[in-house]
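So, does this match?
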Amino acid sequence: KHQRCRENNLTEVIDNTRNPDFVRKFVLDFFFEEKQNLRFDVYNVDSRSCNISKHDFLGQTFCTLGEIIGSCQLLQSPPTFEVPNEKIPCLIWQDIATMQLCANKLDKKDFFGKSDPFLVFYRSNEDGTFTICHKTEVIKNTLNPVWQSFTIPVRALCNGDYDRTVKVDVYDWDRDGSHDFIGEFTTSYRELSRGQNQFNVYEVLNPKKKGKKKKYINSGTVTLLSFKVESEYTFPTSLHYMSPYQMNAYAMALKAVGEIIQDYDSDKLFPAYGFGAKLPPDGKISHAFPLNGDGEHPNCVGIEGVLEAYFQSLRTVQLYGPTNFAPVINKVANCASEITDGSQYFVLLMITDGVISDMVQTKEAVVNAASLPMSVIIVGVGPAEFDAMEELDGDEVRVSSRGRLAERDIVQFVPFRDYIDRSGNQVLSMARLAKDVLAEIPDQLLSFMKSRGIEPRPSMSSSPLHRHI
């Protein structure tokens, strides 16, 4: 079947040889999961004409980009992608842990059966909170499950700190999603790496049962059956990668939402901030830095200006953890707290991969912001678990902090991956994304106005949706 070629890339001409060694490089995006067909046409150039049809056609060959990648001698000399000012290795080493666990004498939770247990692994963050990093499969109707072995990058398990706490929760699966908590235990990568031994048999403890029953011992035990670590090559991935052919997920989400919401802004000036990076020249870590590099004037002109500042910042800062949400939420809240008469309403659009290191502080920031004229839109990009983002979205359970409930639901979260149109029609997908994330903004604005007894003015010169961040 004839396929149209989307691009024409020409090598240089090499004179007077039947064995040319071409040196001009071509930049192509490689997608592991797609078949990318390539066609090479060879011509003999006898004139200076730029028209290919004027030259003698010698022949052609076909292959896929995957075949080229697969033919590289990766173990000896990894190939490189070239991007402006830097080379990124195609393949990098990373440690992958493989482990298998079983349990014994877990608590019976089901009325008509035993239990349907599964494990949830969490790595600890700098602030003492936990981030989910793995879920096992569910084993039906047993108190002595043996889960299948699974693999996980060591970095995902402990972020390079071998002694950092790894928490494991044991649940009984329920069809309606209200899984029953059986108990928990803690370990660390260093403990797990010792493999099967008497120290890697963990008591599953339920704090509530332990507090109520004096004779309570445990809710069963979990045993590490095997553990091994292997180093393997993997493709480095960055959700911020700038392809010359297609915007990354951050830029697409920003453009889709921003281009609609900017219509409600009178001056089209948008302060834009990044969080989680080392800044030049001294490498200071910041969680609320202006994308345009100007601390006194962080405004960007239009969404195109925000995109330009974002792309420029990627060239100048070094992305760095931990990822703290609270500073940038508080920065916007400080602005909103200065204007509470209803003349301005602030919308904070946060685009994130879902990793959050300061959940406690973020919930406090959201609760404080709920009494101000502002809303928070969170778009989650990438394949991560978004449990923390779902918790911040107060649709089911209102966000609370230190016993205080948020006055209003001001957070709307959507995962970007739900809007990838498989037919390739990004325009329709992005329109649907914008519609969904902006759907709650009018009611959130009205709820603030009503709570403060603010009536609409008969002749307003501009909409209260004045500034967006």
Observations:
- Residues 302-316 form the longest helix (15 residues).
- The chain has three domains: 1-71, 93-234, 249-468.
- Residues 72-92, 459-469 have pLDDT under 50 and may be disordered.
- The first strand starts at residue 37 and ends at 44.
